[in-house]
Amino acid sequence: MSQFITPEINIFSPWDYIVFAALFLISGGIGIFFAIKERHKTTSADFLVGGKQMTCGPVALSLTASFMSAVTVLGAPAEVYLFGASFSIFFIAYTFVVLFSAELFIPIFYRSGITSTYEYLELRFHKFVRYAATIMYIIQTILYTGVVVYAPALALNQVTGFDLWGSVFATGIVCTFYCTLGGLKAVVWTDAFQMIVMVVGFLSVLIEGTIQNGGPSKVWEAATNGSRLDIVSFEVDPLRRHTFWTIAVGGTFTWLGIYGVNQSTVQRCISCKSEKHAKLALYLNLLGLWIILVCAVFSGLVMYAHYQDCDPWTAEFISAPDQMMPYFVMDIFKSMPGLPGLFVACAFSGTLSTVAASINALATVTYEDIVKNIFKNISDRKGTWISKGLCVVFGVLCTVMAVVASKMGGVVQAALSIHGMCGGPMLGLFTLGILFPCTNWKGALGGLFTGYIMSFWVGIGGFIYPAPPSKTLPLPLSTAQCVLANLTSNTTAITSTFLPITLSPATAPARSVLEDNWYSISYLYYSAVGCLSCIIIGLLISFVTGREHGRNIKPLLIRPVCNLFCFWSDKYKAKCWCGVRHDSEEDFDHQESLQKDVKMDAITDQPTENGFDNESSKKPPPGYNTEEKSYTNLDIDKESYM
Description:
The protein is mainly alpha-helical and 642 residues long. The chain has two domains: 14-473 and 521-530, Up-down Bundle (Sodium/glucose cotransporter); 585-641, no CATH class. Helices cover 63% and strands 1% of the residues. The chain has 22 helices and four strands. It has helices at residues 14-37, 44-49, 56-67, 70-83, 90-112, 119-124, 127-160, 164-212, 216-225, 244-259, 263-270, 275-306, 324-332, 339-374, 380-401, 411-435, 441-464, 469-472, 513-516, 526-545, 570-576, 585-603; strands at residues 477-478, 497-498, 624-625, 630-631. The strands form two sheets. A two-stranded antiparallel ribbon has the order 1-2. It has a two-stranded antiparallel sheet with strand order 3-4. Helix 10 (244-259) packs across helix 20 (526-545).
């Protein structure tokens, strides 16, 4: 390949470091604020789920910030630059994911009164299923957090000169600091602030990039001429990296494993003060997902318009596509000190929010599913200190694990591959429990392990034996206006165009049928493979070993498929409920009583003669009638269980 003269790109200025440092200081300050504000609330429920008194607004912003991480800020624009705006089809996937999460999964978890998502698995199946799922979640989250911390730090280091290990350790230290001090409330409110920073950072890049490239019409024209707006491909081939079906279907499975049953999401939803607020938080979060997606897609298009005639990756100005966005930012803001720092703050806002949410969720799962089952009589104060200690432990583990992520390729594909391989089987497990009352614990456990075997088989196989280049080629990239190293800067632009090189059949290495088909499947289908394998094998094992009897299942824990078809008769509904007494007044009254007990445990210490013990406030908990000594407003109704 010809050698090109690398354009001079500025590195970070003192103003950039000041803007970036402000992000960390404000985030840490929020942790200190909530540590002081909540100092009298000593229960683990206050620390881990905010006393279940959060409102929908900050929770919605927190959800969006956590999963639209630096992976999205850096990786999604690069995906659009290389492969076109088909990434925007995730608009459909996000919509289905939020609908299923809000109407199917979250109501079950919220009404169950749980703190850890995996408590549900013991209530529905068996403690063995709960422990297996807990261990796999811990492994998945630590791996994913490693990618989120390391990959953006590496990309920014190689382009901006920003210190690699300094940023990695700063991220880990700050997240651990405010998680440990302020608990879930600090995480949620810090995420809300970081979400605003992400949007401002994206908008600054979009506005300046569009201005420098002649306005929106010029950007659109360049994207059209470069085939970046050929969005929809209805090709059914599952080996194609991105088509309408891989993104709409595979993307739904992947993100549903993240949103529907992931502890980090569920924990913040059940921290809301009512089920209505929990659902509203998810729907408001959908709006946030759309906004971030639009910003990422248009950033990729603006970036393509800027480099349509001199691609930095092809010309080897950068070493990886993940560096495209930082390179572009340093290029367009080279005469504007402070703005590159704003973008880096934007990228690291996503990192901080994701890592903080992961640390908090890991501490919650470990405390609720492991510690409390080993040590039965833990006082509230001791439980709070144990929870804080777990935040420190997992903060250190996630920071150390960041080193492993250096071998995992592009940040978007790496992150979604991990979520697909680990989240798919977990999604299948909860689907078995909620939608199929006939599933027994043996089927659930067998299905879970089968799902992991299948998803890791295809995922690791795809990493070792990548798909043929013909299935993963980027769109054409040009170096026509790049200047050759042996020419002066005044020389007329060269007219070479780079097209990704493919090996002819005669020179390509021989590949097995397994490599050409199974291992070459799109990474977005990993979750679907794991989920469907878990469901199918789980049902088969349940029928072979004797299906679960409905009388052993509490109606609160399931929502059979028949509920999706309200026009069905009661006769068919009863059959689909597999004998569960879903219309029993006695069962409903029992569940209502359970809800009262759960809400009392979550909000108060042991009831006193006044009916509550809340030292930090002179008022009783919401919905508590001091005369009747009972809760009168539970935000539930009988029809919601039917």
